[in-house]
């Protein structure tokens, strides 16, 4: 069984919401869940997905933010949920997820995935003390001095980021960090990275993006925060719909789409040190042995896929036919088999 959530939005507020799907303005609504009525704020969310027939929403309820994802491009509807569970297994804090049925003003919109927001509540739940938090909102968040496509120098090192938590000085701190890693090399760079970056967390996050095959996960679709006690930067994954053998539009892609070192300036700097490459290799080896196996991941796939299967059958707002949904566990399992072999081969050259 998956829960049902009812959202009620008055006509005037609904018209306001639909005037501009690209607006980030919230409207008022009511959430009915477990027989309780709670006032909420609602808006559309996402990038290209805002123009889809089945839209995603962001709601604020009792001070907490939730993302209600239509997962429109993912025929399995489990890739985000599976990825975040995998990240949790390999020691990287990541959002909790829950599938549910959404009803808006009495109309059934089908199966959705609720994703926990990465914000103050996220850190409070995990007893993590964060003094700053930034979202990497586009591919300018590549830890380099220039734009990835135009190759022109950025006006500021903060391009590609949005600040969520922290004083305004934290924005300067992050900009200085990106600038410094690009200007230093050798021993001064090694010392600077050790005193400013949680390298173990970074390498585990990198491994997670590499194993799941998230091509967009290295220079955007992550959150970076500064851990208050250690003053080190750490990373949290975000938006893992284009993974496990499909890209962000749902197209089947090869298991070799993503290279072992990913694609950003910070990884390039880190991998210039033999000690870091050795540590990364240890992490990859450990994950291959304990977490990224068909035996370990199959029960997660079966549980997630099996739970929503009866509801997907009657979800007529979806882009994909039910037959495609049914074949997804096999596609993902095949991806795992192929990806393991590719990673083992690439590790020999690390």
Tell me briefly what this model is.
With 350 residues, the protein is an alpha+beta fold. Helix content is 38%, strand content 21%.
Characterise the protein shown here:
This protein is α+β, with helices and mostly antiparallel strands and 350 residues long. It has a domain at 126-290. The protein is built from eleven helices and eleven strands. The protein has helices at 11-19, 79-89, 120-125, 168-183, 186-196, 199-212, 265-270, 274-290, 294-312, 322-326, 328-347, and strands at residues 4-8, 27-33, 36-45, 56-61, 64-69, 97-104, 107-116, 130-136, 161-165, 222-227, 233-237. It has a seven-stranded mixed beta barrel with strand order 1-2-3-4-5-7-6. A hairpin with a 2-residue loop joins strand 2 and strand 3. Helix 2 packs antiparallel against helix 9, helix 4 (168-183) runs antiparallel to helix 5 and helix 9 (294-312) packs antiparallel against helix 11 (328-347). The termini are far apart. The mean pLDDT is 96.
